[in-house]
Amino acid sequence: MTQEQDSAQTEAIATETHQTTTTTQTNTKSSLRSENPTHPLVLKSTDKALDIWFDSLTIPLTLECTDKNTVIIETYNAINQKRPLHKEKLPSIVIEDKAPRILFLSICNGFSKALVARGSGSGLLAALDSVLTQLSALCTEDYRPIWIKLDMVTESTTHLDADLSKTVNFDRSLYGLAFTKAIDLSFLPEQLTTYTLITCTDNIHLGNIEKYIASNPHQHNHDQKLKNFNQSTLYQFKTDSLFFDGNTSIPLYRGHRLFDSISKNNLLDSIDNAVDYLLRSINLDGTFNYSYKPKTDRSDDEYNLLDHSGTLYSLLEAYTLTPADKILSGAQRATQYLLGQLKETTINSQKALVAVEEGNVTLGQNALAILALGKYILITGDQTYLPIVQQLGTWIISTQKSQGEFSIHKQAYNGEMDKTFISEYCPGKAVFALSLLYAIDPQQKWLSSAISGAQYLINIRNKGLIDPSLTHDYCLLYALKEINQQQPNEIFIAHAIKTA
Asked: Would you call 66 exposed, middle or buried from its count of C-beta atoms within 10 A (0-12, 13-18, 19+)?
């Protein structure tokens, strides 16, 4: 399995968990199951084994990797073949275990949010049977999962009579949360974060929990139970989490795969995944889908021209590793949008171009526009945009003082400077842009300006600064590498090491 498949699958099933099918997936049959307490599948799940709750988990759960792999493979096969577990295929430790256990099983068909069920029993086998029964009651007949995630609860901490209106003191991305058994609600860490059931300030968001429950018809009774409690015993639990895609099982931590080491292929796969996402995010007008919210499946209307250019530059960087036509085609569409945001101006009696957004010009916007267009020239050899890049560079060097400081970080297009806006990172971007401009147009003025800007940042702005006061300026690091190749200087190397 490639990392592209791995990342996409783990993301879908680990961060988009959902305890029931969406409305479009729920047919009459599954609805009858959830609403009818006498349905045989529901009756089967109400045996005394389900009296087990998180305070029952007193015996630690430890399985070897090979045993966990065997369990999840057999579980996957049982689900897809619509059959009971074959006990003879399970490890003896699973068959012989009789301690109270709680499991969560998440399944996903690759198109919608995962279905999540909780099961419990006296021993791992009983808990597995229980969770499979719960899932079968949620699935439609034609539901075909391709990915599954098994979470085995390994430990639980009890917080007696907690006030639900006050903060809870635990990491919502590491620990799951369960209420008292009378409320009968429990959530995996991925659910707590994805649906903000616990906020970033560690507050239980009862309103979001109610909304979440309301979206799951089979849990409406839990909503009523929750409304009757101002206090509840809370259980903070950890799980041993394993993902399986039909071929490979992958241990997860905080919903993500673990790496013993990172290979070149891992990195290249990650770049390919990022490129594919960015290409899918390019709209017809050349803008990117700038801010997508998975929780609501919506995109914000806000936009940022600096980030547009930075993203375009990243695509072109990726093209140098994988020169695929689709990357260049997408980059060209994004380039056309960028060109449409450039306007003519005059500075120090010289004609120049500036990147304008909402009536404002910034040092960073101009620098990133140079980087994006300059990178395009470098990798394609097409000089069409060179005059544009030169005029963008003219504006930047015209704002530079004698000591190398860039005097304008933001101004209105009509010329009024915003003296309150000072960016720590825009000067580094400007130095990097000028060093790249020199690479495609080797005029000494570009290199001299880049060197002067770098020396100002090192010798004046950052003089004497150490962590954490020192700006960790990645663009300046790129710039120092470029200009040191043209004019070696020990201070460039020393500052790069200090920053890194």
From this structure: exposed
- Please give the torsion angle defined by the CA atoms of residues 158, 163, 167 and 171, in that order, rounded to the nearest 10 degrees: 20
In this predicted structure, the answer to whether residue 48 has a pLDDT above a threshold of 80 is no
- C-alpha distances (whole Å) from 449 to each of 53, 321, 437 are 68, 30, 11
Order the strands of the 342-347 sheet from edge to edge: 342-347, 350-357, 360-362, 410-412
How deeply is 359 buried, as exposed, middle or buried, from its count of CB atoms within 10 A (0-12, 13-18, 19+)? exposed
pLDDT band at 32 (very low <50, low <70, confident <90, very high): very low
Coil, strand, or helix at residue 381?
coil
Arithmetic mean of pLDDT, 458-471: 88
Looking at per-residue confidence, does 216 or 44 come out higher? 216
In the block, which residue shows the tokens 């009523």? 224
pLDDT score, position 231: 78
Say if residues 386 and 336 touch (Cβ distance below 8 Å): no
Write down how long the chain is. Answer: 500
What is the model's pLDDT at position 227? 67
C-alpha span between 208 and 186 (Å, rounded): 14
Residue 163 contacts residue 231 (beta carbons within 8 Å): yes
- The residue behind tokens 């695929």 is 324
Higher pLDDT, residue 47 or 165: 165
Q: Give me the helix-helix angle, 124-138 and 65-80, nearest 10°.
A: 30
**Burial label, 154 (beta-carbon count in 10 A; 0-12, 13-18, 19+):** middle
Amino acid sitting at position 387: P
pLDDT at position 190 is 93
Highest-confidence segment of 42-56, 128-142, 212-226: 128-142
Sequence-distant (≥ 6) Cβ neighbours of residue 349 within 8 angstroms: none
For residue 471, what are the contacts with CB-CB under 8 A and spacing of at least 6?
424, 425, 428, 462, 465, 499
Distances in whole angstroms, Cα of residue 56 to Cα of each of 60, 153, 173, 254, 351: 11, 11, 23, 24, 76
Cis peptide before 442 (omega within 30 of 0): no
According to DSSP, the residues that pair with 239 across neighbouring strands are 153
Instruction: Count how many Cα atoms sit within 13 Å of the Cα of residue 230 in the half-sphere of its side chain.
Output: 0
Helices within 147-215 (DSSP H only): 189-194, 206-214
Cβ-count burial 382-420 (b if 16+ within 10 Å, e if not): eeebeebbbbbbbbbbbbbeeebebebbbbeeeeeeeee
Q: Give the rounded percent of residues in the chain with a pLDDT score beyond 90.
A: 69
Give the pLDDT confidence of 215-233 residue by residue, as tens digits. Answer: 775 565 555 566 667 778 8
* Whole-angstrom distance, CA of residue 347 vs CA of residue 354: 10
